[in-house]
Amino acid sequence: MQWFPVGRDDSSGWRLDVVSLITILGESLMARHIQPLTASWLCMLPRILPAPQAFLGSTRAARLPSLPNSICGVYSGTLVSELNYFANVLIPVSTMKNFEVAVWHIELSGKKPNQPVTLFEPERIVDTIKDQSRSQNPEEETMVPPRMLSPLNILTVFSSLIVLGAVVWAFVLNDGVAVLALVAIASASTLVGIASHWRPRLATRPTDTKVPKGDIVIRTREGVFVVIKCAEEIARELFMGPEECNYLVSDQWFKVLGGISLSLVTLSVIFLGNCSWTMQAVIAVIYIMLNVFYWVASLLPPSWLWDLSRYKCVDVTPKYLKNADKISEDDSKPSFTRSLWYAIQATGEIEWVTVSDAAPRTPEWETWLGLAKINCRNPNWDAVGEKDRLMKKAHHRSEAPASLPLRRETA
């Protein structure tokens, strides 16, 4: 009795009838790459795309994913509760340690990001854009385009060449069903790319009027403070304004192209089940290999995917603030109060603390903030010790017995 199948295409041999299921596996993995993949025009290339149904949900994302953090303008007082995607790519706040404090200076680099090549003339696609009143200059819409040599773009070109080689192999084997399967798969990926292709649209200032400086403070729930020194233009682009997705086609065309793509995927599944054993094995290996490559790509930092050359970002954190997340030389432990004090020193202001609710609104904390403002240029001020003294005084007052009224003596 044999322990393993031998040969192929018979009851005792290896069978690859389930290879058609491999085409739709890896949906959760591909969902991570939807926006970076479809931001490049290369997404329209005919290719093998694992789990194409992951790109065809009932709706498309209106904006890029954000993180729930507090972002407050130091001078403007503007407050938002989300950290934009590109801001987190440029300065990975989500990877910082608890109570860490950092100061960054961001300015325009003067470099022009690589503009993505478009396959369509603006006049020809004007009727298919989702919202005509919101269309802008293409240069403004692609201030953060995808890197042309990003890992995902390289994978896209590689998978397009792979499917071409597989079609040639199927022709050599006279396997017409495999040719139809590969053509259906490649056509579905092209339609998916057209339906999902988008450009990032960042907020811009419509006028040149004078406004307060754009410095902001990012605060996380883990006690991380990041002070950004920048102009109002950059603050609005990266932090304060919304990051929207400007899609190539309207929602209606997205649904039409999505329906056609799903039909082609269904046909490809049927065709794959009737291919020759050799072509089934070839296609199965291709899908497994691409899934592994996309998994590896998901481990890479997002900064490898986007062209952020528009911005020049420099870490200007003073030396005495770099160890806010560590025990200091005087044995003081990391704490929210100490990190808040460091952020006040970096900004020289306290209004943002009140606006962003970074500190409780009690008389003791208001007194502490006033003292912090006075001593913000004095790095030797014992901020934590002063806060503790104020809290102890408040505690003693709350525990002191109230004076009783004198009772009148009756005659």
Short description:
The protein is of the alpha+beta class and 411 residues long. The chain has 15 helices and 8 strands.
Question: Any overview of this molecule?
Answer:
The chain crosses the membrane at residues 152-171, 177-195, 253-273, 279-300. Keywords: Membrane, Transmembrane, Transmembrane helix. With 411 residues, the chain is of the alpha+beta class. The chain folds into 2 domains: 19-64 and 103-210 and 241-304, no CATH class; 322-397, no CATH class. Helix content is 41%, strand content 9%. The protein has 15 helices and 8 strands. The chain has helices at 19-22, 27-31, 34-38, 85-90, 122-125, 138-141, 151-172, 176-196, 232-240, 251-272, 277-298, 336-347, 351-355, 363-374, 383-399, and strands at residues 70-73, 79-80, 101-108, 198-201, 216-219, 225-229, 244-247, 311-315. It has a 6-stranded mixed beta sheet with strand order 2-1-5-6-3-8, with helices on both faces. A two-stranded antiparallel ribbon has the order 4-7. α8 (176-196) runs antiparallel to α10 (251-272). The longest helix is centred in the middle third of the chain and has 22 residues, at 151-172. It starts with 18 loop residues before the first helix and ends in a 12-residue tail after the last helix. The model is unreliable at 116-140 and 406-411 (pLDDT under 50).
Q: What are the SSEs and their pairings?
A:
Blueprint: H1 19-22, H2 27-31, H3 34-38, E1 70-73, E2 79-80, H4 85-90, E3 101-108, H5 122-125, H6 138-141, H7 151-172, H8 176-196, E4 198-201, E5 216-219, E6 225-229, H9 232-240, E7 244-247, H10 251-272, H11 277-298, E8 311-315, H12 336-347, H13 351-355, H14 363-374, H15 383-399
Parallel strand pairs: 3-6
Antiparallel strand pairs: 1-2, 1-5, 3-8, 4-7, 5-6
